[in-house]
Design goal:
alpha+beta, 7 helices, 38% helix, elongated, disordered N terminus
Length: 263
């Protein structure tokens, strides 16, 4: 299992290499050399693709990759998920045109369970991130998460940390250390429920929301998932919170993970 010390160099290398081909710059409606990952793509007309790109400084952007489906297109083998890219595009509209994409390396490929977890991350980003809303800290966290998965760190812990970071970055994560009723500090030996819009409060007899020990909430805020009870309760809590913020929209990869791995 990789430790934080072993993954840190990989994360740093990925960030460095993602900027290596050219310095990111903006000239009018042109963007060049932007670190990015493909989240999703689908066919457009006969020879092109529309791709959802997660970029460090521009957030999630939609681009037309013209001719990317042609057998000899330079983009055909480059526009793959979980591969760090240096990307360039032009245009003012919501759907812009990809002009260049280069693979920059520096990361191990995802395999087996880690690959499925990666698709789950991408689905979360597609469904929860607004387009053209930059989240550079979340981009860095995504890079770190892919590295952790590639180094076989426990998915149950890696996914919880990313889910929590995503809710924080999108501004919908409450402080898990403060009770919303009294503003007092959450107590480890008290059972709480978490209001998705406000935060934790002591559990009541009539509550149908999942009950969570105060210790679990405090552990989550510290990103300490070593306790088995914390892992189990945080899984149920994050499933509940994500369902709320997704408005009930299903997560296809989440269901596969639940069926296969109980993550």
């Amino acid at each position: 299992m990789a430790t934080e010390a072993t993954t840190a160099p990989a994360v740093a290398a990925a960030r460095k290499s993602s900027r290596a081909p050219t310095r990111e710059r903006t000239v009018g409606t042109k963007v060049a050399g932007q670190p990015a990952f493909v989240l999703h793509s689908y066919p457009y007309k006969e020879t092109s693709l529309i791709i959802d790109l997660f970029t460090r400084d521009y957030g999630r952007v939609a681009l037309i990759a013209k001719g990317a489906k042609r057998p000899h297109s330079q983009l055909r083998g480059v526009l793959q998920t979980f591969q760090p890219l240096s990307s360039s595009w032009v245009g003012k509209s919501e759907l812009r045109t990809l002009t260049d994409a280069e693979w920059v390396g520096g990361m191990l490929p995802l395999e087996k369970t880690a690959l499925l977890c990666g698709f789950y991350l991408n689905e979360l980003l597609v469904k929860l991130l607004a387009r053209d809303d930059a989240h550079p800290a979340l981009f860095d966290h995504y890079v770190a998460t892919l590295n952790q998965l590639a180094h076989n760190e426990p998915p149950t812990i890696v996914l919880r940390k990313f889910e929590r970071a995503l809710l924080k970055e999108t501004g919908v994560a409450a402080d898990l250390t403060r009770c919303t009723d009294t503003r007092s500090t959450v107590q480890a030996d008290v059972v709480y429920v978490v209001d998705p819009e406000r935060g934790p409060r002591p559990q009541r007899a009539a509550d149908i929301w999942p009950g969570v020990a105060g210790k679990t909430l405090l552990d989550m805020e510290r990103e300490d998932y070593q306790d088995g009870a914390t892992q189990s309760q945080s899984k149920q809590l994050m499933r509940f919170l994500l369902a709320h913020h997704l408005g009930g929209a299903p997560l296809n990869t989440r269901q596969i993970l639940i069926d296969l791995l109980q993550l």
